[in-house]
Amino acid sequence: MEYTTVHSRKATLSLKITEFEVPPMQDLLIIGKKAPIGPEAVRRMAEALSPEQFTLLKIEHPKIEAVLVRSSILQMLDQTILMKIVMEEVERMIIDTMVLRSELKVALSVQREVELG
What we know:
By secondary structure, the chain is α+β, with helices and mostly antiparallel strands. The protein is built from 3 helices and 5 strands; from the N terminus they run ββαββααβ.
């Protein structure tokens, strides 16, 4: 008796984006090119508050200089896919002097189908 297995894996992303406030740490910080706090200062702040929990990603974008991301998110999601989604949503609302923070929830959805012989 032979069985066939079909796998389907999907991830649903939910972004909540607000202006930067204190306390600053959430899942993402999007740093504008002319923001009052630069990427290195943000990285040092994150390291002081949550050592080894965040990764700073430099971005080639007209208004955005960098994105600080919780490292555990980069273990779950491909960096290119994550940044594409974040940039598509954020570039509509950010100006180059802003620092935005975002909560990011990742829910994994798995569906498997097997043929019963």
